[in-house]
Here is the input.
Amino acid sequence: MRGSRSTRTTARPKPASRYSPPQDCGFRPSADLAGRAVALSPDIPAVFDAPLAAHHKLVGHWVLSQENPTRACTRFAARRHVERTFEAAVLDVLAPLELVDLRVAVLLSEEDGPPAIAIVCESMGQLDLGWIETSDAPIAWRAAAYHALEHTLGRALPVFGYQDLFDEISMYYWEGATDDEAARECLIAYHGVDEETLDGMTLPSEMNERRPEWMIAANAAPSARLPKRLRRKLADLRKAYKALGSLTPERNAWHLDFQVAYEYLPGIEECASLPPLTLVPFEQFTRELDTAAQSGMEMGFMDIAGICPLPEANRIDEWFASLRCGAAFLKAAQDIVQFVPPKPRGSHD
Here is the structure.
Protein backbone atom coordinates (compact mmCIF):
# COMPACT_ATOMS: atom_id res chain seq x y z
CA MET A 1 0.00 0.00 0.00
CA ARG A 2 2.78 2.45 0.70
CA GLY A 3 3.85 2.20 -2.86
CA SER A 4 0.47 3.38 -4.05
CA ARG A 5 0.66 6.63 -2.08
CA SER A 6 2.27 8.40 -4.98
CA THR A 7 1.52 11.84 -3.61
CA ARG A 8 3.39 11.23 -0.38
CA THR A 9 7.05 11.74 0.35
CA THR A 10 9.92 10.58 2.56
CA ALA A 11 8.32 8.44 5.23
CA ARG A 12 6.68 5.12 5.91
CA PRO A 13 3.14 5.68 6.84
CA LYS A 14 0.53 2.74 8.53
CA PRO A 15 -4.52 1.39 10.32
CA ALA A 16 -10.59 2.37 11.20
CA SER A 17 -12.35 1.28 14.30
CA ARG A 18 -11.09 -1.69 16.28
CA TYR A 19 -8.03 -0.21 17.95
CA SER A 20 -8.45 1.51 21.29
CA PRO A 21 -7.91 5.27 21.20
CA PRO A 22 -4.21 6.18 20.95
CA GLN A 23 -2.39 8.07 23.65
CA ASP A 24 -1.25 11.61 22.98
CA CYS A 25 1.77 12.01 20.75
CA GLY A 26 3.33 14.42 23.22
CA PHE A 27 3.33 17.47 20.97
CA ARG A 28 1.36 20.68 21.40
CA PRO A 29 -1.48 20.57 18.88
CA SER A 30 -1.44 23.56 16.55
CA ALA A 31 -5.19 23.34 15.99
CA ASP A 32 -8.29 22.14 17.74
CA LEU A 33 -9.22 19.38 15.32
CA ALA A 34 -12.94 18.72 15.41
CA GLY A 35 -14.27 15.58 13.78
CA ARG A 36 -16.09 16.26 10.52
CA ALA A 37 -15.63 19.93 11.26
CA VAL A 38 -13.08 22.65 10.89
CA ALA A 39 -11.48 24.43 13.80
CA LEU A 40 -8.84 27.12 13.64
CA SER A 41 -5.91 27.38 16.01
CA PRO A 42 -7.05 28.06 19.59
CA ASP A 43 -4.04 30.24 20.46
CA ILE A 44 -5.76 33.34 19.03
CA PRO A 45 -7.46 35.30 21.84
CA ALA A 46 -11.20 35.54 21.31
CA VAL A 47 -11.33 38.97 22.91
CA PHE A 48 -12.78 42.18 21.51
CA ASP A 49 -10.20 44.07 19.47
CA ALA A 50 -7.61 41.28 19.75
CA PRO A 51 -5.74 41.03 16.44
CA LEU A 52 -6.71 38.30 14.02
CA ALA A 53 -3.89 35.87 13.24
CA ALA A 54 -2.47 35.12 9.81
CA HIS A 55 -4.65 32.08 9.16
CA HIS A 56 -7.83 33.98 10.03
CA LYS A 57 -6.78 36.80 7.72
CA LEU A 58 -5.96 34.37 4.91
CA VAL A 59 -9.29 32.57 5.14
CA GLY A 60 -11.02 35.89 5.79
CA HIS A 61 -9.88 37.24 2.43
CA TRP A 62 -11.33 34.13 0.83
CA VAL A 63 -14.62 34.58 2.70
CA LEU A 64 -14.84 38.18 1.50
CA SER A 65 -14.36 37.00 -2.06
CA GLN A 66 -17.39 34.71 -1.67
CA GLU A 67 -19.82 37.34 -0.42
CA ASN A 68 -20.60 41.05 -0.38
CA PRO A 69 -20.48 42.27 3.23
CA THR A 70 -22.78 45.20 3.97
CA ARG A 71 -21.82 46.07 7.55
CA ALA A 72 -18.80 46.31 9.80
CA CYS A 73 -18.31 43.92 12.70
CA THR A 74 -15.99 43.37 15.64
CA ARG A 75 -12.87 41.28 15.27
CA PHE A 76 -14.45 38.60 17.43
CA ALA A 77 -17.52 38.47 15.18
CA ALA A 78 -15.28 38.47 12.12
CA ARG A 79 -13.32 35.53 13.46
CA ARG A 80 -16.47 33.53 14.18
CA HIS A 81 -17.88 34.34 10.74
CA VAL A 82 -14.64 33.31 9.02
CA GLU A 83 -14.54 30.00 10.89
CA ARG A 84 -18.20 29.15 10.35
CA THR A 85 -18.17 30.03 6.66
CA PHE A 86 -15.07 27.94 6.02
CA GLU A 87 -16.43 25.08 8.14
CA ALA A 88 -19.71 25.01 6.21
CA ALA A 89 -17.86 24.91 2.89
CA VAL A 90 -15.68 21.99 4.02
CA LEU A 91 -18.59 20.04 5.47
CA ASP A 92 -20.47 20.44 2.21
CA VAL A 93 -17.63 18.60 0.45
CA LEU A 94 -17.06 15.88 3.06
CA ALA A 95 -20.71 15.20 3.98
CA PRO A 96 -21.22 12.27 1.53
CA LEU A 97 -18.28 10.31 2.96
CA GLU A 98 -19.09 7.43 5.30
CA LEU A 99 -16.07 5.27 4.57
CA VAL A 100 -13.83 7.29 6.87
CA ASP A 101 -14.09 10.23 9.29
CA LEU A 102 -11.88 13.17 8.40
CA ARG A 103 -10.92 16.37 10.17
CA VAL A 104 -9.72 19.58 8.59
CA ALA A 105 -7.67 22.20 10.45
CA VAL A 106 -6.10 25.50 9.47
CA LEU A 107 -2.62 25.69 10.99
CA LEU A 108 -0.07 28.38 11.75
CA SER A 109 3.53 27.62 10.86
CA GLU A 110 6.01 27.21 13.69
CA GLU A 111 8.69 28.74 11.45
CA ASP A 112 6.96 31.90 10.16
CA GLY A 113 5.76 30.19 7.00
CA PRO A 114 2.32 30.75 5.47
CA PRO A 115 -0.76 29.15 7.03
CA ALA A 116 -1.56 25.60 5.93
CA ILE A 117 -4.65 23.41 5.83
CA ALA A 118 -4.33 19.82 7.04
CA ILE A 119 -6.63 16.85 6.50
CA VAL A 120 -6.46 14.42 9.41
CA CYS A 121 -7.88 10.90 9.54
CA GLU A 122 -10.09 10.38 12.58
CA SER A 123 -10.89 6.70 11.94
CA MET A 124 -8.69 3.87 13.19
CA GLY A 125 -8.40 0.14 12.57
CA GLN A 126 -9.83 -1.92 9.74
CA LEU A 127 -11.75 -0.14 7.03
CA ASP A 128 -15.22 -1.57 6.48
CA LEU A 129 -14.97 -3.84 3.45
CA GLY A 130 -18.69 -4.60 3.25
CA TRP A 131 -19.65 -7.34 0.83
CA ILE A 132 -16.04 -8.01 -0.10
CA GLU A 133 -15.44 -9.55 3.32
CA THR A 134 -18.86 -10.82 4.34
CA SER A 135 -20.89 -11.84 1.28
CA ASP A 136 -21.06 -15.15 -0.56
CA ALA A 137 -20.46 -13.45 -3.91
CA PRO A 138 -17.93 -15.19 -6.18
CA ILE A 139 -14.35 -14.96 -4.91
CA ALA A 140 -13.23 -13.54 -8.27
CA TRP A 141 -15.55 -10.53 -7.91
CA ARG A 142 -14.52 -9.89 -4.32
CA ALA A 143 -10.83 -10.22 -5.13
CA ALA A 144 -11.16 -7.76 -8.01
CA ALA A 145 -12.80 -5.17 -5.76
CA TYR A 146 -10.32 -5.71 -2.92
CA HIS A 147 -7.32 -5.47 -5.22
CA ALA A 148 -8.63 -2.19 -6.65
CA LEU A 149 -9.02 -0.67 -3.17
CA GLU A 150 -5.64 -1.96 -2.04
CA HIS A 151 -3.98 -0.46 -5.10
CA THR A 152 -5.60 2.97 -4.93
CA LEU A 153 -6.70 4.07 -1.44
CA GLY A 154 -3.23 5.09 -0.32
CA ARG A 155 -3.41 8.07 -2.65
CA ALA A 156 -5.76 9.85 -0.23
CA LEU A 157 -5.73 7.95 3.07
CA PRO A 158 -3.08 6.88 5.59
CA VAL A 159 -3.67 3.14 5.16
CA PHE A 160 -1.63 -0.04 4.98
CA GLY A 161 -2.25 -3.38 3.30
CA TYR A 162 -1.18 -6.97 3.75
CA GLN A 163 2.33 -6.63 2.34
CA ASP A 164 3.03 -3.77 4.77
CA LEU A 165 1.84 -5.94 7.66
CA PHE A 166 3.91 -8.88 6.48
CA ASP A 167 7.02 -6.68 6.24
CA GLU A 168 6.38 -5.29 9.72
CA ILE A 169 5.98 -8.75 11.26
CA SER A 170 8.98 -10.03 9.32
CA MET A 171 11.20 -7.32 10.82
CA TYR A 172 9.71 -7.76 14.30
CA TYR A 173 10.03 -11.55 14.56
CA TRP A 174 12.22 -12.80 11.73
CA GLU A 175 14.82 -10.05 11.18
CA GLY A 176 13.39 -9.44 7.72
CA ALA A 177 13.31 -13.11 6.64
CA THR A 178 10.55 -14.09 4.22
CA ASP A 179 10.98 -17.89 4.08
CA ASP A 180 10.32 -20.40 6.83
CA GLU A 181 13.86 -21.75 7.18
CA ALA A 182 15.44 -18.33 7.63
CA ALA A 183 12.63 -17.31 9.99
CA ARG A 184 13.23 -20.41 12.14
CA GLU A 185 16.92 -19.59 12.38
CA CYS A 186 16.12 -16.04 13.49
CA LEU A 187 13.65 -17.20 16.12
CA ILE A 188 16.25 -19.54 17.59
CA ALA A 189 19.24 -17.20 17.32
CA TYR A 190 17.68 -13.87 18.30
CA HIS A 191 14.55 -14.69 20.28
CA GLY A 192 15.73 -17.70 22.27
CA VAL A 193 13.06 -20.03 20.89
CA ASP A 194 13.91 -23.71 21.22
CA GLU A 195 13.11 -26.45 18.73
CA GLU A 196 10.22 -27.76 20.84
CA THR A 197 8.27 -24.49 20.76
CA LEU A 198 8.91 -23.65 17.10
CA ASP A 199 5.77 -25.49 16.02
CA GLY A 200 3.64 -22.96 17.88
CA MET A 201 5.32 -19.93 16.31
CA THR A 202 4.02 -18.03 13.30
CA LEU A 203 6.16 -18.53 10.20
CA PRO A 204 5.93 -16.73 6.83
CA SER A 205 4.14 -19.55 5.03
CA GLU A 206 1.56 -19.96 7.80
CA MET A 207 0.84 -16.23 7.83
CA ASN A 208 0.41 -16.16 4.06
CA GLU A 209 -1.91 -19.17 4.16
CA ARG A 210 -4.27 -17.33 6.50
CA ARG A 211 -5.19 -14.82 3.83
CA PRO A 212 -8.77 -15.27 2.62
CA GLU A 213 -8.96 -16.07 -1.08
CA TRP A 214 -10.46 -12.66 -1.84
CA MET A 215 -7.27 -10.97 -0.58
CA ILE A 216 -5.14 -12.61 -3.27
CA ALA A 217 -4.81 -10.52 -6.42
CA ALA A 218 -4.31 -13.59 -8.62
CA ASN A 219 -7.90 -14.62 -7.84
CA ALA A 220 -9.37 -11.40 -9.26
CA ALA A 221 -11.61 -11.77 -12.29
CA PRO A 222 -10.76 -9.78 -15.42
CA SER A 223 -12.99 -6.79 -16.02
CA ALA A 224 -14.98 -8.52 -18.79
CA ARG A 225 -16.14 -11.22 -16.34
CA LEU A 226 -17.43 -8.84 -13.68
CA PRO A 227 -21.04 -7.70 -13.28
CA LYS A 228 -21.72 -4.61 -15.36
CA ARG A 229 -22.47 -2.36 -12.37
CA LEU A 230 -19.33 -3.45 -10.54
CA ARG A 231 -17.27 -2.98 -13.67
CA ARG A 232 -18.62 0.57 -13.97
CA LYS A 233 -17.86 1.35 -10.32
CA LEU A 234 -14.30 0.08 -10.69
CA ALA A 235 -13.89 2.24 -13.79
CA ASP A 236 -15.16 5.25 -11.82
CA LEU A 237 -12.60 4.51 -9.10
CA ARG A 238 -9.74 4.33 -11.59
CA LYS A 239 -10.85 7.58 -13.22
CA ALA A 240 -11.05 9.40 -9.87
CA TYR A 241 -7.70 7.92 -8.82
CA LYS A 242 -6.08 9.22 -12.00
CA ALA A 243 -7.65 12.67 -11.56
CA LEU A 244 -6.34 12.97 -8.01
CA GLY A 245 -2.89 11.84 -9.10
CA SER A 246 -2.78 14.51 -11.81
CA LEU A 247 -2.83 17.37 -9.29
CA THR A 248 0.43 19.18 -8.60
CA PRO A 249 1.66 18.57 -5.04
CA GLU A 250 1.62 22.23 -3.97
CA ARG A 251 -2.03 22.53 -5.03
CA ASN A 252 -3.22 19.19 -3.68
CA ALA A 253 -5.08 19.09 -0.36
CA TRP A 254 -4.29 15.35 -0.13
CA HIS A 255 -0.54 15.61 -0.68
CA LEU A 256 1.62 14.76 2.33
CA ASP A 257 5.21 15.90 2.62
CA PHE A 258 6.40 14.83 6.04
CA GLN A 259 8.95 17.63 6.29
CA VAL A 260 6.13 20.14 5.80
CA ALA A 261 4.04 18.34 8.43
CA TYR A 262 6.92 18.57 10.93
CA GLU A 263 7.07 22.34 10.34
CA TYR A 264 3.41 22.85 11.24
CA LEU A 265 3.04 20.12 13.86
CA PRO A 266 6.26 20.09 15.91
CA GLY A 267 6.78 16.82 17.74
CA ILE A 268 4.68 14.78 15.34
CA GLU A 269 7.86 12.99 14.33
CA GLU A 270 7.66 11.27 17.73
CA CYS A 271 4.49 9.50 16.63
CA ALA A 272 4.68 6.01 15.18
CA SER A 273 5.06 5.73 11.42
CA LEU A 274 2.10 3.33 11.36
CA PRO A 275 -1.00 4.75 9.64
CA PRO A 276 -4.27 4.46 11.55
CA LEU A 277 -6.14 2.53 8.82
CA THR A 278 -5.72 -0.94 7.38
CA LEU A 279 -7.32 -3.09 4.70
CA VAL A 280 -6.15 -6.27 6.46
CA PRO A 281 -9.06 -8.19 8.07
CA PHE A 282 -8.86 -8.48 11.84
CA GLU A 283 -10.58 -11.84 11.94
CA GLN A 284 -7.61 -13.59 10.35
CA PHE A 285 -4.75 -11.40 11.60
CA THR A 286 -5.70 -10.14 15.07
CA ARG A 287 -2.38 -11.00 16.71
CA GLU A 288 -0.25 -9.53 13.94
CA LEU A 289 -2.29 -6.32 13.76
CA ASP A 290 -2.11 -5.88 17.53
CA THR A 291 1.67 -6.33 17.38
CA ALA A 292 2.09 -3.90 14.49
CA ALA A 293 -0.21 -1.31 16.08
CA GLN A 294 1.45 -1.37 19.51
CA SER A 295 3.78 1.57 18.90
CA GLY A 296 0.94 3.59 17.41
CA MET A 297 -1.24 2.90 20.43
CA GLU A 298 1.55 4.14 22.69
CA MET A 299 2.80 7.14 20.72
CA GLY A 300 -0.04 7.97 18.34
CA PHE A 301 -0.42 7.13 14.66
CA MET A 302 0.79 9.15 11.70
CA ASP A 303 -2.76 10.11 10.78
CA ILE A 304 -2.21 13.08 8.45
CA ALA A 305 -3.92 12.53 5.10
CA GLY A 306 -2.61 15.73 3.54
CA ILE A 307 -1.19 19.16 4.38
CA CYS A 308 -1.11 22.12 2.01
CA PRO A 309 0.61 25.47 2.74
CA LEU A 310 -1.34 28.41 1.32
CA PRO A 311 0.71 31.58 0.81
CA GLU A 312 -2.20 33.53 -0.73
CA ALA A 313 -5.96 33.64 -0.22
CA ASN A 314 -6.61 32.98 -3.91
CA ARG A 315 -5.08 29.54 -3.45
CA ILE A 316 -7.97 28.50 -1.20
CA ASP A 317 -10.27 28.01 -4.18
CA GLU A 318 -7.65 25.66 -5.64
CA TRP A 319 -7.45 23.86 -2.30
CA PHE A 320 -11.22 23.35 -2.34
CA ALA A 321 -11.06 22.06 -5.91
CA SER A 322 -8.51 19.46 -4.85
CA LEU A 323 -10.52 18.65 -1.71
CA ARG A 324 -13.52 17.90 -3.95
CA CYS A 325 -11.33 15.80 -6.23
CA GLY A 326 -10.15 13.65 -3.31
CA ALA A 327 -13.66 13.42 -1.87
CA ALA A 328 -14.93 12.20 -5.25
CA PHE A 329 -12.20 9.55 -5.23
CA LEU A 330 -13.14 8.38 -1.72
CA LYS A 331 -16.83 8.39 -2.69
CA ALA A 332 -15.97 6.10 -5.62
CA ALA A 333 -14.19 3.75 -3.21
CA GLN A 334 -17.16 3.93 -0.84
CA ASP A 335 -19.52 3.02 -3.69
CA ILE A 336 -17.52 -0.16 -4.27
CA VAL A 337 -17.70 -1.13 -0.59
CA GLN A 338 -21.46 -0.44 -0.56
CA PHE A 339 -22.07 -2.34 -3.79
CA VAL A 340 -24.75 -5.04 -3.55
CA PRO A 341 -23.58 -7.96 -5.71
CA PRO A 342 -26.14 -9.70 -7.90
CA LYS A 343 -26.68 -13.40 -7.56
CA PRO A 344 -24.49 -15.31 -10.04
CA ARG A 345 -26.33 -16.86 -12.95
CA GLY A 346 -27.63 -20.30 -12.17
CA SER A 347 -27.65 -19.72 -8.40
CA HIS A 348 -30.68 -20.66 -6.32
CA ASP A 349 -32.00 -19.31 -3.04
Remarks:
- Strands lie at 8-9, 38-40, 102-107, 116-121, 125-126, 159-160, 256-257, 277-278, 304-309.
- The chain has a mean pLDDT of 84.
- Residues 2-337 form one domain.
